[in-house]
């Protein structure tokens, strides 16, 4: 799933490891989410949203909206 | 398996169970070889080495419950699926070949060795497709 995690992380000047520690997950998890290789569960997506104080849809791009835009 | 608190606990459990496996297997082999095991106890002594191996499966199940990192847990589930599919495929194929007398009979406990080999294949698959995990 496309997302703005890398951009949001960069605005705070956090490394992947910094974000991983704040989310209590591994750095590999953060990397997999950022690169779109892994879609987080809803609880983890909420944790990410709360950490960045932003709604989930501002961080993660809905696959259905993305495809409808392409049409 | 990536290093997490849950994986460390799994490793410690596995080490203890492996030691227990050796502690059961070596006397059993010696006892059977020198005909020291009385008949009523033979089944018990023969089954004892299998129990720690079963314990390792239980430890793996426990690890999946305890692992807090959902991505790491998913990697391990993928490895387990690979290991199970690989082992069952080989065992089924070998079973038919054996049944038709085309290959020799293989002791059943080799299944666990195959399963661990399948776990390594799952690790390689994770590495190739997600660039993560360990074999």
Keywords:
heterodimer; A: about 70 residues; 434 Repressor (Amino-terminal Domain); about 0% strand; B: mainly alpha; 5 helices; flat
Characterize the overall form of chain B. flat
Low-confidence stretches of chain A: none
Using a beta-carbon cutoff below 8 angstroms, give the protein chain pair with the largest interface and the number of residues from each chain.
A-B, 13 and 12 residues
Structural domain count of chain B: 2
Number of helices of chain B: 5
Shape of chain A: globular
Note the quaternary state here. Answer: heterodimer
Helix-strand string of chain A: HHHHHH
Major sheet characteristics of chain B? none
What is the first-to-last residue Cα distance of chain B?
7 Å
CATH architectural category of chain A = Orthogonal Bundle
How large a portion of the residues of chain A is in β-strands, by DSSP E? under 5%
What Rg of chain B is obtained from the alpha carbons, in whole angstroms? 18 Å
Helix and strand element order of chain B: HHHHH
Distance between the termini of chain A: 18 Å
Mean pLDDT of chain A: 90
> What is the CATH class of chain A?
Mainly Alpha
Low-confidence stretches of chain B: none
Helical fraction of chain B equals over 70%
């Amino acid at each position: 799933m496309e997302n703005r995690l890398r951009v949001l992380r960069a605005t705070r000047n956090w490394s992947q490891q910094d974000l991983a520690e704040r989310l209590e997950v591994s750095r590999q998890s953060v990397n997999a989410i950022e690169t779109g290789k892994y879609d987080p569960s809803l609880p983890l997506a909420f944790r990410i949203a709360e950490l960045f104080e932003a709604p989930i849809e501002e961080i993660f791009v809905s696959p259905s909206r993305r495809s409808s835009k392409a049409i | 398996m990536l290093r997490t608190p849950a994986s460390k606990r799994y490793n410690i459990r596995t080490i203890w169970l492996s030691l227990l496996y050796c502690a059961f297997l070596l006397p059993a082999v010696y006892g059977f070889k020198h005909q020291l095991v009385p008949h009523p106890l033979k089944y018990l002594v023969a089954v004892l080495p299998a129990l720690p191996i079963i314990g390792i499966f239980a430890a793996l199940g426990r690890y999946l419950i305890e692992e807090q990192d959902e991505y790491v847990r998913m990697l391990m589930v993928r490895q387990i699926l690979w290991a199970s599919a690989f082992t069952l495929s080989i065992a089924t194929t070998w079973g038919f070949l054996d049944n038709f007398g085309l290959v020799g009979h293989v002791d059943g406990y080799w299944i666990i060795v195959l399963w661990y080999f399948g776990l390594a294949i799952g690790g390689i698959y994770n590495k190739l497709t997600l660039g993560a995990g360990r074999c």
